[in-house]
Amino acid sequence: MGFYGGRHDKRNARPKTAKELQKDIDALDFRLETEALKFSEEKKLRGTIRDLKKQKVLTLKKVKLAVESRNASRPNSLVGGRVSRQAPEQVLSKDFSNKLKSARIAKGQTQEEFSAFLNERESVVSKWENGSLKPSIVTAKKLEKILKITIVVEAGVEAADANDILKSLNPAKGNKTATLGDLVKVKVRNR
Prior knowledge:
Elements: H1 18-73, E1 76-79, E2 82-85, E3 90-92, H2 96-106, H3 111-118, H4 122-130, H5 137-147, E4 152-154, H6 157-169, H7 180-189
């Protein structure tokens, strides 16, 4: 398509007629309109997709809030026609690393032997024992069974123990919770 018909050699080519030029212009107009229509439809679709994603996020937030509020108001849940208690959240005890190391030593194993027994890397077991890495709750429960120790506790149990210690040290405080200063005194007294 150009002003001259045929090849790009202008010396031997004859100029296109007005009819041929108009036909080329119409073809270009049609292509331009088609591309513009595709672009506008694509732009509309992108906007629709963006709106649907926003609605999805908002709906998920609403569902999550509804589930949380329902669970907060009802501590028991209905499962298969029976009422069952929800399992309390479980966490590792604060001294899990010391318990783990003591249990390993009590078995008479080195870290290398113990890691081979557990099928874990020695560096992972070392990090568990020095407290820089925590095993997952599932792994910790397996360790409990193997070593016959307790390192998984319910959340909040240890805080209640600290308050019990505080009450035993200073019964005059009554039901008040521990302050940072009181906990420092507890640490000093327990040494």
